[in-house]
Structure formats: structure tokens, C-alpha cells
Amino acid sequence: MVSARGPFMVWFPSLVFSLSLFLGSAPGAPAQASQPSDRAVSLPSPLEDLTRSFRTGSPGLLRTLLPGEEKIHVSSPSLGLKNGYYSGDQIYFLFQDLFRFRKTLKFNILKGAEIPPDSRRLNAVARWTYRKGNSRDFTAEISFDMVLKEGSWCIQEIREIL
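Request: output the structure for the sequence above.
Response:
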């Protein structure tokens, strides 16, 4: 007996179902793309301190990277940091003000995350995405030049990449 819909409609749904099972398990079927891991990448100690300082808005975490007597060259017009040389204490207070009025959304090291063995210099470039109050998001790319002195890394220069 033939269905009112015709002989084609009787076996067609079974064919579609069988084909979907076959194609879904075929060896040439594309595999699902694996999701990138969200685990944190281990950074060298000076960059870890820098990253945590920005992500938590804690200028105190920068203290280990600020030299005692030497001045640090700073230049970041869009962040309101005038071109000049500042002491470690001045840098601390400048960043205290920056973090007070800006909420960090993201801070990532873009370049320089690996320190070559026996290196005494490090240049790291980071991207800082932040918000001031309820404003739109702002992004700054900042270069941090560091030197190894007496077994400790010290920031030598902070400048915005325009």
C-alpha cells in the first residue's frame, strides 16, 4: 500500500537519517576545533609583578621594580604622564593616581615575555585596556625597559607607543 504522500516520502526520511549518521562518523569528517587553553602563561618574575600590579590596580607591586636612587624616564601623553625623569617614589605615586581613576579591563604582555639566559636587559611591550569611570574603553600600548642590577630587575624607562 502506498502512502497518500507518495512512495518517495515513505523512504526519504530514513535515507536522510542514515546519511547523517554515516557522514557524522566518516573518517574524513572535520574534527571539532579545540578550544585554546585559558590557563595562565607563566611569566618571568619582573613581568609577573608588573602584570599583577596593573590587573589589580596596586602600585605597591611595582615597588620591587623601582630603583632606589636612579631616575626612570617616562613618556605617556595620553595617560597624562609628561616626558621626563622621575624617582621611584614619584613613579609609585603617579601609578597610584592612574589606578585610582582607571579600572583595568585587560593587561597583557605582547612582546618580551621570555628573558634570554644571561640577559641583563629586557624590553617588554604591554597592552593596557582600561576604563575611566563609566566612559568607553581606552587602550594604551606601553613599553617597559628593564635592566638587571645586583640581581634585581629595575624599570629604566616607561613610554607609550603611539
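Residues 7-25 form the longest helix (19 residues).
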